[in-house]
Amino acid sequence: MEFLLLGSLTVRRAGTSLELGGPRQRAVLMMLLLHANEAVSVAQLTDAVWDAPPVSPESNLRTYVAGLRKVLGDRLITRPGHGYQLVVEPGELDLDTFNALVRQGEEAAAESDAEAAADLFAQALAKWQGTPAPNAGPLLHAEFTRLRERRLAAVERYARAALELGRFDDVIDRLRRETAQQPLREELWAQLMLALDRSGRRGEALEAYAAARKHVVEQLGVEPGARLRQLQQVILESRVPSPAALNAHRQLPMDIAEFTGREAELRRLCSPEAHTTVVISAIEGMAGVGKTKLAVRAAHQLVERYPDVQLWADLHGFDADELPADPSAVLESFLRLLGVPGGQIPESLAERAALYRDRLAGKRALVLLDNAAGEDQVRPLLPGGASCLVLITSRRSLMGLDGAKSVFLDVFTADEAIALLSRIAGADRISADPGGAARVAELCGHLPIAVALAAKRLARRPQWTVADLVAQLERGGGLGVRGVFDLSYQALPDHQRRFFRLLGLHPGEDVTADSAAALAGLTAYEAEDLLETLLDEHLLQQHTPGRYSLHDLLRTYAVEQVVAAEPPPARALARRRVLDWYVHTSWHASLQLNPVRKLDIATADPSVHPRTFDDRDAALRWCDTERANLVAAVRDAAQHGLPVHSWSLAQCLWDFFNLRKHWADWIDTHTVALAAARSAGDRVGEGLTLVTLGIGLREIRRHDEAIECSLQALTIFRALGDRARQERVLNNLGIAYMVTGRVDDALECYEQSAEIARSLGNSHTEAVLLNNIGLMHADAGRFDQALARYLRSLELRASIKDPYSEAILLNNIGEVYRGLADFPSAVSYVDRALETFRRIGDLFGQAESLDNLGLALEGLGDRRGAEKCWVESVTLFEELGEPKADEVRSRL
């Protein structure tokens, strides 16, 4: 026999459809099929068939069962005392096949076999021949709601796997149909937006967001969730690579328009060849020889062969002002770009490398690693599959890497140098004096960066001949790059020379007009004009629009010039201004990320104009983009005698680090800031840094160190008589004690903190603490004590507009009343919690309170009401991917 439940109910014997009777008889059959090979009770069948059951439903059910038995024969058996059971053989029921295919798809996805997963989910979805809509009772409606949710979850999993494989058209067609039928399901819209954007249809992706928002606002009265809003911003700004972007894995720097020569090297790097392992090409050579330019040009030529993923990182192997990049930190960045949430990135280098290789498995990926310090830095960053290619640049030999193909890059040949001169300065001028052009190349040591600077010098002076340039270079005092740097630098007007050398003081790897303006005491408009001028003069580089950087050699030169030309007070003032800008801009960002938190910082220099942010998303994007510079600024302030800037900036950043789960940056910056505060004897800075360092250590489960930080901070604030900060530290210490099982110590900390909050009139904090205390008493079974704290917390919340926290508290009160066996009160409070969670659109809160409400109704003897709550709770938990769905399902 063949039983088809996923669509219009059909039963076939030997290919012939059988007559199944009227709507109620068919409802009985549906319920039996949903629980095939299990006994289904009369009570369950009653709830499945009728909204309002007749006086004696058993008699009607016997009639329906008899009618079905005429069709199904001995497949339908009576289980005395248990109800009825329909016997179904393996492979006969489409629902069983659907469930089996979904399970196999989930297993394939867990093993990162996207192709198998997509095919299995597609086969599962093909089993659905329509949308079942039974004319029946509430239990059957709930069962089919659960089934439809399971189907939608399979649609989302299929879309995720197909997107990974680049099957955009298939995904778009399916998701357009699904969103039309399920306009409030935001994950379907999100995947449709991703598919449209990745297939180059950005405008349609943004139209999809507008349609999703219209449905959500009109039908629910709220804005779309964070995922959709963030995805819209990523698509809007996708022309600028963003470390925060979802799956922002096309990261190559801009190609160089004036690239010249290196034809043989390019052919060697780009020639196709058969291979069974990851291809590794190491470009080696001295500073300024053009390794990065060659690697970027080759990467852009290879993109068509490696279209799935392109990753890029500057490893800072030879940066005089910055330590070589930690491979673990680079892997964290890559994993985020590949769509791994920060909270799911492992801590150890080995685990990160394994997850990175897993994410790139089967993908045609190109990884560009610039300025590598050596093999040990590079090895963890190598993909594992033969479908990937790695381009590495370094001043050292990397032949220790297994299978690496070395491309040694020497200085230009005379012909290549003259070709670059012609491209920049003009072919007519160079061909008019070939001997002079050869002499310019010789004076530049044939070093590409020096040749480019000399050519730009000539291009900017149309009245000069090549002979004039030769004379200038010869007067400069010798051959090589230093002479060319001097010539270019000395030719700048005074204000441009000053601006260039001050860039040697800027923390981090690149600058913007805003940060450079603070450094030089200018407006952003003036700074941008100067940056563009230096870019035109080849004294700056630009990998992404709006961000400028110095070549390693030019950065060293700028540092030398600023030390020689600017007295120490002037250098200190410039450094203070740019750090002021970072501190105050970060402070404005923190106001958006955590408006409740109060953070005092010192006044900035009057010439500094920090950025402000219109909303949370804008603040988060800025933090993401500036992250490397912000971390460098904390260290720079500590190294140059500005401890307040160091610890203040660390304080401003910890909300960002917490949101993005940048744990390594969190711990590193706070460790540096703590040492700076201690070296200056700054007790307030030391105490504040200990507090947030302790929170970070707790997050990475270094609990003993976290507790020690909190204890040290508590000692400091007690010595200073700062009760407000004692309150905060005691709360954090209580949490640390609680997660380590030291319940009595945690309770004592919470009680002390609540008492301080009460004495200071801090109602919000007191309410939070009373809730924490209530939770601990409830966990210990001390329900009377828990209830007293909860009810007092609820009183305090009457004047605080925080519906989310109030809903959690109402749900907690309901749990305590259940513990006290006062089920009517439990139902009353949990009902209020559920209503609030629904109003604010919190699905997890709804699922939790529905489970709690079901337990309370069960206590009242309302089994049917409890069952309805649990069915809805399971549906929501499954939609959210929460394991608690299984626990609630077991109650059913």
Structure description:
The chain is an alpha/beta fold. It contains 40 helices and 12 strands. Among the domains are: 164 residues, Arc Repressor Mutant, subunit A; 146 residues, P-loop containing nucleotide triphosphate hydrolases (Rossmann fold), CATH 3.40.50.300; 77 residues; 73 residues, Arc Repressor Mutant, subunit A (Orthogonal Bundle); 91 residues, Serine Threonine Protein Phosphatase 5, Tetratricopeptide repeat, CATH 1.25.40.10. The two termini are 29 Å apart. Helix content is 64%, strand content 6%. It has a 5-stranded parallel beta sheet, sandwiched between helices. It has a 3-stranded antiparallel beta sheet with strand order 1-2-3, with no helix packed on it. The protein is globular and about 115 Å long. About 1% of the residues have low confidence.
